[in-house]
Input
Amino acid sequence: MRVTENSLTETYLYNQQQILKSKTKIQTQLATDSKIQTISDDVTGSLDSMKINSNLKKNDTYLANVEEVTQFMNTTLNAMDNMSSEIQKILNLAVSADNPFNSQNLTSMGESVKNSLSAIVQNLNVKYNDMPVFNGTNFKDSPVTLDVNGKAVLSAADFSGEIQAQVSQSVKQTLNISGSKITGTGLFTAINNIIDSLSSGTIPTAAQLKDLQDSYTSILNLQSVGGQTINRMDDLKQMLTNNQSNLRQMLADKQGIDAAALTTDLNYKDYLLQMTNKLLARNYPATLFDYL
Output
């Protein structure tokens, strides 16, 4: 059977196109550091990669939410630490009022208690990213304000709402300590009663001191709950970070390339192109192939 020149040309050109196509694919893999560009490259590998990518995005979201819970709770606990310090000052003042040397200083001690109460209210209104941390889901009102006499006024609004974040596939974590839990300790009523006693020149009673001490203990218990939340988030963050590393490694295993092998293959494709051009040049002298 006679092989025509056209037939040879078509074969050479077809081979050249296939080599160029293969070369382009290798160059793309090297540039993207991925051996999978389309599903047709590796159907099973592509589907597995899509699943791993989906899980990785979910894991990243959980990790971001854990960080948000941690930061929100840290802001909350810092504010409660400040409150606790002021409550301790009030307790010390109230106890020392029974000292005879302070009998003439009860009114000024009452003013000091008002200053501590003002600091407590300020910390109760602290914000995280412009969000009041103790307001629950009520972003309009304030749990406690001060009247013209420097005493606490409790709002009738509801501050019991919980704000939650998805920190794993099956777990939602409450990230706030509601204002209702703070006001529910009886703290502000106890402080108001001590202010009334001191302002009138009267030593706070044992019952008043006990009420304030009980409120203080309740505040400490709430801080302990917040601390437990921080610890859980630290443990969960470590688990999610490890899971993130594992997923990224799995994705790299599915999509990763052998750069050395691909580079060698790319050089071989270049060699084949050169050979194809030379063969064409031999069969068709005085053509453009002579200049390739």
About this structure: The chain has a mean pLDDT of 83.
